[in-house]
């Protein structure tokens, strides 16, 4: 495992992506930084973080050595690895808000940005993780919190990084061994608001009710609607409100 520590960079995902094209790179090459000037989130959003307070890193994983039929399994494995690391640190009520936000006590404490790339015709992936660790103020972000805000404890960023990498390797091994269902079942068991009456907003802005019952292997959210019909939604089609 190679760890590249940077003081500041635009985005660790972008840095690692550039690196892939310029040199040979091995699994679990990690880029971690104190500060990002252009941190990127899902669906074109930005990821802001106060300098030196939080964990921001990206790791490289070659997917060609074991065929992962459905990329969403990587996303599930990474979410579970983070969850396991946080549970071991006694962070309370951790869950996965579909598809891959990590919550504690209903607040977002971690975001994941997975970007698949093709290098020399081999599929590989860049797994970017941002965890709010020791930052205590979140201006204009009422849904965000940090580990320190939740527990009052100041955490060592390196220790959390190493725990997450260790668990990511273990969940990757499960996929490598074909234990797809084990990963999917564990992911679904840890889904935020699973089997609870919930309200959603569709792409047209209309609200509707239903129960999250699981996900498909393609990563769509399965919702049981009031008329007993199960519908599948992708990320652009649905927002979980409460
Ligand atoms: C999200 O919740 O929208 C995903 C946020 C992902 C943020 C991390 S921070 C490290 C890595 N580099 C980036 O530019 N983004 C990811």
UniProtKB/TrEMBL annotation:
Identify the enzyme class: ligase
Q: Does the keyword Ligase apply?
A: yes
**Does Magnesium appear among the keywords?**
no
PROSITE patterns named in the record: BPL_LPL_CATALYTIC (PS51733)
List where this protein forms a coiled coil: none
What InterPro entries is this protein classified in? Answer: aa-tRNA-synth_II/BPL/LPL, Biotin_CoA_COase_ligase, BPL_LPL_catalytic
**GO function terms (MF aspect):** biotin--[biotin carboxyl-carrier protein] ligase activity
Q: Which UniProt keywords apply?
A: Ligase
Domain BPL/LPL catalytic, residue spans: 1-176
Q: Which Pfam family, an example, fits this chain? A: BPL_LplA_LipB
Q: What is its EC number?
A: 6.3.4.15
User: Which PANTHER family is this protein grouped with?
Assistant: BIOTIN PROTEIN LIGASE, BIOTIN--PROTEIN LIGASE
Q: What's the protein called, per UniProt?
A: Biotin--[acetyl-CoA-carboxylase] ligase
